[in-house]
Each structure stands twice: as C-alpha cells, then as structure tokens.
Amino acid sequence: MELNRKSKGEHYLRVLMLSWEFPPQIIGGLGRHVYELSRRLGNYGVETYVLTPLVDGCVSYEEFQGVKVFRVGTPLTGSKRFKSWIFSFNTELIREGIRLDYQEKGFHLVHAHDWLVGYAGRSLSRVLDVPLVSTIHATEYGRNLGLHNPMQKEIHDIERNLILDSECIVCCSNYMRDEIQNLFHPSPSKIAVIPNGASMNRYRVTDLPSDQEFEGIDKGEPVVFYVGRLVPEKGVSILIKAFRLVLQAIPSAKLVVAGRGPQGPELQRLVAELGLGDRVWFSGYVSDDLRDRIYHRANVAVFPSLYEPFGIVALEAMASGTPVVVSDVGGLGEIVIHGETGLKVNPLDEDNLASALIRILSDPRLANRLRFQALKVITEKYNWDKIGAKTSQVYHAVISRARKDGVG
Predict the structure, then answer these.
(1) Vertex 272: Cα angle to 269 and 274 (nearest 5)
(2) 4 belongs to a structural domain
C-alpha cells in the first residue's frame, strides 16, 4: 500500500538506525546512503535516530531536517586497531541505544547498516524487544572475491548472524539479493530490493563556464573522471592501462583519479612506469562540492569495478549529466542500459574499456544522448524520495508481522 506524505510532527514510527559512516565521515557509498535515506523518511511518518561514531570536530548530538544524530565512542583513526575499535564502538552503540530507548519511551524498530554494527543491532533488537532490519551494502566474500584469511571468515560469520537475526534484509540490487541468497540462504520472503538513489548535481544547471579550470586540469583538456576508493576491486589499475590506449587516439585527454585507499602508491607507480605522469592527476580526497564541479567539467565518468553491489557513484555521475562507462558487473550492470544511459564494458578488458572511452570522447552526439536518457532514468527510478517511501513500507510490513508474532 502506498504511504502518503505526513505533515511535520505527524511521526508515528521511531527507528533507531546504526551506521559506522555518516557525514562528515564518508568512506564509501554507505554513509551517503544513510544520510540521504534518513532525511527523507520523515516525509513518510518515520522519526529517525542515527547512532554513528564520534568524529573529530563534530558535536556528539545534532538535529537536521528532523533526523536526530548521536555520535558515540571514539573517532575511527588509522592508528587504532580496527578490530578493537569495532568492539568498543558496538559496546557504545548498545549503551546509547538503551539510554535513548528509555528517554524516548521506546523504539519500534532497529535498522543496522552492514556488519560493522551487526553485534549492536542484534543485541539492541533483543534487549529492546523490537524487530531488526538490516541493509547489506556489500559482503566480505564479494569484496575480496572469496574468503582468504581468518579475519575475512570472521566478518563473514558476523554477516551471517546479522542476516539470520533480521526480520528483513534490504539490499540495493538484484545482484546483491542473489549473492546474499547464495551465501547465507535466508528465506527469500525476508529480502527486499530497494535501490540507492542520487540527488541532482546543482552544477548541472548552474551553467558553470565549460572551460572552468581546476588544479591538475588545463583548459580545453578532455577529462576522464574516476572517483572512489583506491582498492583492487575497483579496477583502477585496469583503467590506467586502458587510458594509455586512449591517449594514442586522443593525446590531449586527462585522467582524474579522485579518492584514497591502500592501493594508491601502487597505482601511482603504475602511472610512472607507463610514462603517463603528466596525463593523470591523483587528486586525493575531494569534497562533495569539488566532486560535483569536476563531474560538470568531465567529458566522461568511468567505473571499471570488478565487484560492485550497486555503484552509487555511477548514479551521481549520471545525475550530474556526465556520460558514464561502467563494468558490466553487479549493480552497475543493472543501473546502466548499454547504448541508452551509458556504455558497459567487460571487466578486466583494457581494450574494451579504452574503446568505450574513446567512443564517448569522440562522439558529442552519442555523449548528449546518453546524458539525456540517464537524467530521465535518475528522475523516474533513483529518486531518494521514492526510496524513502519504499523503505518506510518495509518498516510497516516488518512491524505488522512482528505484532502478529507477539514481538515488539
């Protein structure tokens, strides 16, 4: 049943949402997802309380657009032992969740995002006697193309326990639904597929000068843009090798690689070995504002992942009016319709990737057609407001079932 929008103050569901990422701490797509979703849920009768890690320079509590954000524990830093930090963070989540439950006269549901908050999500669901919904943004098996060491196997077990204890498992693509089904075997009726969304890039309509210059990008250079984590499964090494072929056809092209990650030094060495130093700019971390400006300036955005449960960055590029080239894997293969909203290529295929990039850079009519069709699909299908409505429907269905079963 379609839920109607609720006027301000007409909340009738209180949801405790757990996430290890939330602005300004954005590491991947998860934090952006929780931010956008939580602030849309209020339109559909859901009052959202987000519990997330403390971040240096941020207050421990703030409220924006009806979302109440509580930051707990200690900041996540590279100097800390990750496993110890996760245990401590989950302990603080449980403590704060119980305190808020007493203060707010109870929650109707706990919503956990990924394994890092799995222990707290399961514990709070039991202690507060309310149902648990979990969103699985990716799996440890998928990220690493298998389980290769004890830590990965331990994370896999945490994911299994979170999924089996959840009344509903939300995933962002049919690919992820099948992966979860094959790995963990939950009842198919417990899985809901709700895609990620994207907000329209304001610079798409601001009419920035087409020759706007950035550090690392010269006026008039055709720009190929990648943004994301610098890890092997993102396929950036394949992109760099393919870009060498692009330069043979379009010598003035420039590759912008935005993001950070453990593979960064290796990728920079690869650029040097291939003699591409002056044609590739590693920008490091970019703010949302700079990212959006580069999208507006770029001629094509590329996401050559080997594993991608969804690919929210591809949606953001499409919402910016930037033509996209993506690997035909996972959620990326579902988002892009080849030849209509972007171009899809075979993963690990340097020649195929180079050909697609050259095709868009050389054919303005094709680029414009892909741009127009992609914007239409973003508006119709990947609208955050619609995603908020679908998520609230999941909440109501879960709560209704729980009440029939005598839970909550």
Answers:
(1) 110
(2) no
7 within some domain = no
In this structure, are residues 395 and 109 in contact, taking their beta carbons and an 8 Å threshold? yes
Residue 98 backbone phi and psi in degrees, to 5: -65, -40
In angstroms, the CA 343 to CA 324 distance is: 6
- 229 and 161 in a single domain? The answer is no
Q: What is the CATH number of the domain that holds 362?
A: 3.40.50.2000
What single string gives the DSSP state of each residue in 110-139? EEEESGGGHHHHHHHHHHHT--EEEE----
Sign of the dihedral defined by the CA atoms of residues 43, 49, 53, 57, in that order: positive
**Interior/surface letters 263-277, b for 16+ CB within 10 angstroms, e for the rest:** bbeebbebbeeeebe
C-alpha–C-alpha distance, residues 135 and 363, integer Å: 40
* Residues counted in the chain: 408
Range of the domain at 327: 202-381
pLDDT averaged over consecutive 10-residue blocks of the chain (408 residues)?
A: 40 90 84 92 94 92 92 78 90 97 94 96 97 95 90 95 97 92 95 88 50 68 94 94 97 94 95 94 87 90 89 87 93 89 95 97 96 90 91 95 71
